[in-house]
Amino acid sequence: MLARRIIPCLDCDLGVPQGRVVKGIEFKQIRYAGVPWELASRYYEEGADEIVFLDITASHERRETMFNVIRTTAKNVFVPLAVGGGIKSVDDVRGVFKAGADKVTVNTTALKRPEIITEIAEEYGSQACVVAIDAKRRDSPGEDRISVPTPKGESWFECSFYGGREFTGIDAIAWAMKAEELGAGEILLTSMDRDGTYDGFDLPLTDGVCKRVRIPVIASGGCGNAEHIFEVFQKTGASAALAASIFHYNEWGVDEVKRYLAERGIHVRI
Fold first, then answer.
1. What are the tens digits of pLDDT across the range 176-203?
2. How does pLDDT run across 137-183, given as a tens digit for each residue?
3. Quick one: CATH architecture of 5-263?
4. Which position among 13, 134, 195, 207 bears the catalytic label?
5. Helix, strand, coil proportions of the chain in percent (round to 5)?
6. Catalytic residue at 134?
7. Catalytic residue at 139?
8. 3-class state of residue 146 by DSSP
9. CA-based Rg of the chain, rounded to a whole angstrom?
10. Would you list the domain boundaries of the chain?
11. What beta strand segments (E) does the chain contain?
């Protein structure tokens, strides 16, 4: 069996020349966490399997700042780097890869223009295209929704875009299935209800997607400790777990999480 991956996530605010990493709660209440390449270097040294950079400003004027962040990081970090936020075209993808990234994540553009998934996959391979889904739980699923049992009853999950500021009416599980058909190589699945809460991953959502796609799923949103990561690996088919706050604020090291998982029988790369 492939090793489960531990992936730190760096939400980058590019409003300052060197960029800065921030973290919020349910996509709000933002606080400072550090300098992007310094945190990335630390996580690499601790054994991170990959690192995700998300440009939460995603403005064209700040694109060069993100390129600089990736170029600086890639000099000393030798695990796959994924970059998302503001990717609107294959030209944008090309610029990110030239800066040193290995993958891109697409969310808003993919929802508005799904064919970009196929364009990226055809140009660079499916492994380079990660579709990010920011999903929020909704009650009263209709006939056209894929519902899953949750502690609050049968629910469906709605896709959002523009950093969680707008909702689409699109079923998140159905969209994950469609993204796979279009050529996505991986799904980055974030629960908006759990983001930054330390309450653990959304297991019904994660399990619902994992059971319906064949490509790897990265569980995201809600990680508060190593037990939560163990739980999502034990109870769902997630191939990776993404976390931010527990790493940024020195509550857990990546190496500590991996030792915890290995001691409990989860196959990870040590």
1. 999 999 999 999 999 999 998 999 999 9
2. 999 777 789 999 999 899 999 999 887 788 999 999 999 999 999 99
3. Alpha-Beta Barrel (3.20)
4. 134
5. 35, 30, 35
6. yes
7. no
8. coil
9. 17
10. 5-263
11. 5-13, 20-25, 28-34, 51-55, 81-84, 103-106, 129-138, 148-150, 153-161, 166-171, 186-191, 217-220, 240-243
